[in-house]
Amino acid sequence: MADKKYNIRQLETARVIFTDADAGVVGETYAAAVPAVKSVLRFLGVKTEFPLINIFIAPSRKEYDKLVAHLTRIPTNKGRLGQPQGHDFYLVSPNAYAKDVSPNYCRPDGACDKGMYKLFIKHEIVHMVEELISPRDAMEVRPQWWSDGLAVYVTGQYRDRVTTKYMKADRAAGKIPGLDELKGGPAYTWGWSVVRYIDKRFGRKKILEIMRNTCDADIPGLLKLSKKTLERAWQNSL
């Protein structure tokens, strides 16, 4: 941005774009992103070269919003920690977590929880891989429970303290949502378990097939199931 000076550090498989204030987090951010790419490709059984990525680290939420709006022309969600767009990956700096990020992602002292930061980076890498191997605009029509559920499942985020807290609360209240309710927060909390059910019943190749060959919101139909049949089978598997 015009009022901020950004540096560019060229590393082996990524460029990191950052301000002087965040020079100290470049290494850990890169070190989280690169193994994440390899891990996600391996988990999904994808054999392809992943392109060089650009990692933008914004020093504050306000600067992040300006950066994303300026470079992508896409409005950002105020609750996001970051987002991918093509080969670009935008992040709120971990140095800004105490001020600009939900306490869910911070330690008790308010500082960034580095374990949650690494998981978040990997989550967004899953979205980048899905976009890379999917038909054009396919991710825009797939249900949120699929894409965010896939990212939570592949990363193992379903074991983190935030997801388990919300799952326990829903179970205690007797709330097991239906597929149509898996939007917003519930897509993250429960979507992964639908993807896991599909993985266990149909195999990892089916997940890859959906990603590579479909541009359809009707995931149950692609599995030759009705929505109600998939919903009941998934809920019974919990």
How would you portray this structure in words?
This protein folds into 2 domains: 7-133, Glutaredoxin (3-Layer(aba) Sandwich); 138-237, no CATH class. Helix 8 packs across helix 9. The chain has a 5-stranded mixed β-sheet. The protein is α/β, with parallel strands linked by helices and 238 residues long. It has 11 helices and 5 strands. Strand 2, helix 1 (26-44) and strand 3 (53-58) form a beta-alpha-beta unit. The longest helix has 20 residues, at 114-133.
CATH topology of the largest domain: Glutaredoxin
Helix content: 40-55%
Low-confidence stretches: none
The tally of domains stands at 2
Question: Strand order of the main beta sheet, please?
Answer: 1-2-3-5-4
Radius of gyration: 18 Å
Query: Which CATH class of the largest domain applies here?
Result: Alpha Beta
| Helical/strand content category | alpha/beta
Succession of helices and strands: EEHEHEEHHHHHHHHH
Major beta sheet summary: 5 strands, mixed
Number of helices: 11
Q: In CATH, what is the homologous superfamily of the largest domain? A: Collagenase ColT, N-terminal domain
The end-to-end span amounts to: 47 Å
Shape verdict:
globular
Q: What's the overall average pLDDT, rounded? A: 93
Oligomer: single chain
Query: How many individual β-strands?
Result: 5
